[in-house]
Design brief:
Helix content of chain B: 25-40%
Radius of gyration of chain A: 19 Å
Largest sheet of chain B: 5 strands, mixed
Structural class of chain A: mainly alpha
Distance between the termini of chain A: 52 Å
Structural class of chain B: alpha+beta
Largest sheet of chain A: 2 strands, antiparallel
Radius of gyration of chain B: 22 Å
Strand order of the largest sheet of chain A: 1-4
Number of helices of chain B: 6
Shape of chain B: globular
Largest interface: A-B, 38 and 39 residues
Oligomer: heterodimer
Shape of chain A: globular
Strand content of chain B: 25-35%
Number of strands of chain B: 11
Order of helices and strands of chain A: EEHEEHHHHHHHEEHHHH
């Protein structure tokens, strides 16, 4: 077990520089020394430890980190501390950005590793570790369906839900999205759900944002929200329709 | 047949009829108190009233009774928020019975007042004074508060830097010339360096309209197949806007005029 720590600005800058270099030289190794270096880190408030272990999915990670950190590390630190999530990124780097058989790492865009609170294009929901934690913390197992991918993956369904940063705090919205776009029998997101076409998850976000002007969308359950959706656009995705 | 999404007769509650105040005490969670005067809207007595607070990953609902029995007495705890957080508020009146779930009246993006508010108000770029605990050794910072579906840029200013906040309030060229081009650059980058379309609506539309006052060209359509190239093009557009903005404000000349040098020629290479 290792003590959870928070990277300071210099520590975050180190990882940012490393990731930039990694794009040019994908065989580089992360700088593990800074994980416990007191020049770059301080212990996370509240005191917590994490195990260096593997996770089969974002879901497993989300469950683990929520059960390990929630209630120990203050809510506000978990919600807003860039340094904490960057430290966890570095701690689990072999899973967040694993090397292939040739020792080369495929680097995604920087916000997947280093969130930038308050910056719209790099909001923390786009971070590979923050989002699973947030979904499990807010919605528990209701969010399990969208966290099937491996920790390293920027899955389309996560990308769409992460962009819905305002609505993804609503369990009923996540439940509605599941009812429309998740095939429970196959255990997979339905084909076409994450396109930009009518009826897609992206359109659901836009339509619900319109409904938000006229309905109390945060106070209506998933079935009620489904009943408000335009049938012409979403009919084929609605559970009643798809069973016919 | 699609259901109508708009025009359900919802009433817009006037900003003057509501008020929210944050109560911040060191070492305690942030609380709020609110007032709402709803009598003049002719709303059903049984309609439910809800206050919602939201701030980045934070969202909390506070049922406060009905129009006929509204209870806004006292202070309510904003769970997990601390001094320095600036949530926005929404007040909703929700139909009962046949109109269940339908908004009868609402107001969104209510910016709370706080003791250190500094009159941030509702300007396009509110100036928000912050303590050194929040700012550290930084003098200023562009912050994007999430409001509704939008990002609202704010300029956070370290209030413990002597004279900085009032200089910015008074638009002192000695300060604005040094800061505002970079502030404008960060604001625009934050707003458009993603798959945003050009719009005339909302806060983004206001910022884009402002940008067009200085640089008439719209940015290119976002190409989702080549994100890096799209981001680079947006960045070039932002740089062009900031150059034109700085030129239009004559920052260089006005800065030197304030210093009393009168002329700028002696500082050039020629």
């Amino acid at each position: 077990m290792s003590e959870v720590r928070v990277l300071n600005e210099a520590g975050v800058a180190q990882l940012r520089e490393f990731i930039q270099q990694l794009k040019m030289n994908p065989a580089m190794w992360p700088p593990p020394d800074i994980l416990s270096d007191t020049r770059y880190t301080v212990p996370a408030p509240g005191g917590a430890s994490v195990e260096l272990r593997s996770f089969s999915s974002k879901l497993e990670f989300g469950r683990y980190v929520a059960s390990t950190l929630n209630g120990r590390v203050p809510d506000r630190v978990l919600r807003t501390s860039i340094g904490l999530w960057v430290w966890l990124t570095l701690f689990y780097f072999e899973q967040v950005c694993p090397a292939d058989g040739n020792g080369r790492r495929k680097v995604l865009s920087i916000e997947k590793y280093i969130p930038s609170s308050g910056h719209i294009s790099t909001n923390p929901d786009k971070h590979l570790l923050f989002f699973p934690w947030k979904m499990i913390t807010l919605h528990g197992e209701e969010a399990a369906w969208l966290l099937n991918g491996a920790l390293r993956e920027d899955t389309k369904v996560v990308r769409e839900l992460a962009n819905s940063y305002r609505r993804n705090v609503s369990t009923e919205f996540v439940r509605l999205a599941r009812s429309l776009y998740f095939d429970g029998g196959r255990g997979k997101v339905k084909t076409g759900a994450t396109t930009n076409r009518p009826g897609s998850l992206r359109r659901l976000d836009r339509v619900v944002s319109q409904l938000d002007l006229t309905y109390d969308v945060f106070g209506i359950n998933a079935a009620g929200l489904a009943g408000l959706l335009p049938q012409r656009e979403f009919g084929r995705w609605l559970p009643e329709q798809s069973e016919n | 047949m699609s259901k109508p999404l708009y025009f359900t007769g919802r009433k817009e509650i006037a900003r003057g009829d509501v008020g929210v105040r944050l109560i911040e005490r060191s070492g305690e969670p942030t609380r709020f108190s609110a007032t709402a005067s709803l009598q003049r809207y002719g709303l059903p007595e049984a309609a439910t009233v809800v206050v919602e607070a939201y701030h980045n990953a934070y969202f909390e609902r506070f049922p406060v009774g009905t129009v006929g029995t509204i209870d806004l007495e006292g202070e309510r705890v904003l769970t997990g928020l601390e001094p320095g957080d600036r949530p926005l508020f929404r007040i909703k009146v929700i139909g009962a019975d046949g109109a269940a779930g339908q908004l009868l009246a609402a107001i969104d993006e209510v910016r709370p007042a706080a003791d250190d508010d500094g009159g941030a108000g509702c300007s396009l770029l509110p100036l928000v004074p912050k303590s050194r605990d929040v700012m550290g050794d930084e003098f200023w910072r562009v912050h994007f508060a999430h409001a509704g579906d939008e990002a609202r840029p704010e300029l956070w200013v370290n209030r413990e830097v002597q004279g900085l906040f009032p200089s910015l309030q008074n638009q002192d060229p000695k300060i604005t010339a040094l800061i505002m081009p970079e502030v404008f650059r960060q604001v625009l980058r934050g707003l458009v360096e993603d798959a945003e379309d050009w719009t005339e609506e909302g806060r983004l539309g206001q910022w884009l309209a402002l940008a067009q006052e200085f640089h008439p060209d719209e940015f290119d359509v976002w190409d989702g197949e080549d994100i890096e190239a799209s981001r680079l093009k947006r960045r070039e557009w932002v740089d062009a806007v900031v150059r034109a903005f700085s030129r239009a404000h004559r920052f260089f000349d006005r800065f030197h005029e304030q210093l009393g040098s009168g002329t700028t020629e002696e500082t050039t290479d020629e």
